[in-house]
Inverse folding.
């Protein structure tokens, strides 16, 4: 991608985080929009299984629009501040329907007084390749088997797009860009490439920008979220965390900060934890745009809750793109009941024995069955110390993985029976959700990047 004809590149840029996942808090994004003095506000709303879950919901509910269920809430919260400041928005809230999400954003723009003002919204699609992934001769990274071996179970396959289609949309004047699956750091790298004039083969700059994007993508994890450990790593006012803001220079250096007066902390520890989060090899963090090298990074505290980041490196990008494949892998039947007071653990152990025998009697066909005591061994399983202190109360969680919904439903039916046919003083809850649910397995493969063609579609307020 060449930036021919443009000469007025920026020397600095302020980019703020708007979310780190689908269920993230909305108030910090509103705060950034109103008080962050931002050039760009970027939303990351996907996990690995998001697209697959959206496809499953779409099959069940034809009225489901296919985009982030919090799209309205997020946009209503930030549009007033962004419109007043001129802040541009980049978001992967499009999920499996970027065009539908973009059209909805246009409606919200008009409701906020932008009707007839020519605000341009770009939808970036093309990441979904479900219909042809089995024919691309790929190999499943996790087990070495051909992708074709799971073809009948695949419900979604989406390639991780990079920054370039977003950059192209910005070059053509987009005020808001809505995408489907895009690699998390690429959402933040795109405005740097556009505003600083970084070329797609300037891997030193792209490495620095993608590294900064990785720091921002998980939102409050840089400002003290998912960090506190009382007495060891204390965080001031953790109920009032802001999302991070990066003050970025055209050379790829930046200061990570947050809105003044908010809770949380930005220091070397919070940045280092996020820098290494979900990074298997710090010297070779692979993104669609560049291979990032964090081993050369330098961090410096330059003020209260202000960390300067320099010298993140970059290497040439790979010839392939990662594809995340969601597959149907059966069902899970799950429920829970409780004991409290002296002897709680003994009663739970007898209940486990009863259920194991009951499942044998009713012929439960399960590929896997777990009966865990929450608070005692549900996390560490067999590694739980044999002399662990006896708990005063025990929650018994039962889960079975099965091939059919009918088998999964047996879990709930047998636990219902424990209410009057089980152990004394069994505490049974009224089911408040489906006790049998479909399992979405997530597998990965690589495809040549030329096999994926992004598409930009335009909408205007």
């Amino acid at each position: 991608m060449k930036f021919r004809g443009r000469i007025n590149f920026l020397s600095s840029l302020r980019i703020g985080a708007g979310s780190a996942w689908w269920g993230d808090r909305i108030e910090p994004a509103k705060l950034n929009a109103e008080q962050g003095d931002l050039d760009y506000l970027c939303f990351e709303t996907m996990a690995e299984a998001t697209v697959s879950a959206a496809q499953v919901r779409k099959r069940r509910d034809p009225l489901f629009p296919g985009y982030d269920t919090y799209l309205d809430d997020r946009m209503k919260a930030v549009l007033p501040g962004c419109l007043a400041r001129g802040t541009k928005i980049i978001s992967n809230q499009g999920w499996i329907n970027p065009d539908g999400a973009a059209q909805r954003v246009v409606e919200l723009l008009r409701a906020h007084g932008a009707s007839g003002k020519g605000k341009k919204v770009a939808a970036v699609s093309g990441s979904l390749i479900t219909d042809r992934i089995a024919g691309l001769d790929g190999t499943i990274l996790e087990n070495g088997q051909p992708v074709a071996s799971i073809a009948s179970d695949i419900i979604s396959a989406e390639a991780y797009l990079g920054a370039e289609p977003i950059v192209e949309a910005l070059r053509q004047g987009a005020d808001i860009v809505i995408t489907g699956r895009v690699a998390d750091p690429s959402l933040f790298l795109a405005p740097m490439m556009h505003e600083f004039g970084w070329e797609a083969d300037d891997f030193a700059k792209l490495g620095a920008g993608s590294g900064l994007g990785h720091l921002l993508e998980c939102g409050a994890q840089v400002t003290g979220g998912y960090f506190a450990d009382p007495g060891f790593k204390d965080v001031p006012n953790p109920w009032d965390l802001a999302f991070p803001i990066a003050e970025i220079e055209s050379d790829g250096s930046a200061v990570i900060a947050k809105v003044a007066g908010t809770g949380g902390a930005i220091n070397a520890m919070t940045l280092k934890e996020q820098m290494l989060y979900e990074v298997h090899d710090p010297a070779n963090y692979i993104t669609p745009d560049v291979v990032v090298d964090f081993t050369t990074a330098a961090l410096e505290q330059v003020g209260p809750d202000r960390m300067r980041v320099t010298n993140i490196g970059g290497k040439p990008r790979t010839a392939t793109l990662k594809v995340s494949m969601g597959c149907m892998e059966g069902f899970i039947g799950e429920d829970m009941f409780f004991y409290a007071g002296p002897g709680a653990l003994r009663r739970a152990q007898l209940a486990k024995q009863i259920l194991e025998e009951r499942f044998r009697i009713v012929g439960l066909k399960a590929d896997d069955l777990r009966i865990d005591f929450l608070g005692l061994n549900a996390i560490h399983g067999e590694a739980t110390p044999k002399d662990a202190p006896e708990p005063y109360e025990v929650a018994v969680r039962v889960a079975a993985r099965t091939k059919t919904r009918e088998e999964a439903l047996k879990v709930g039916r047998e636990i219902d029976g424990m209410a009057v046919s089980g152990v004394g003083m069994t505490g049974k809850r009224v089911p408040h959700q489906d006790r049998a649910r479909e399992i979405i397995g997530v597998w990965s493969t690589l495809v040549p990047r030329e096999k994926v063609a992004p598409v930009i579609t335009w909408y205007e307020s």
Notes: The CA atoms of residues 53 and 113 lie 34 Å apart. Residues 344-361 form the longest helix (18 residues). The longest strand covers residues 320-340. Residues 12-126+161-318 form one domain.
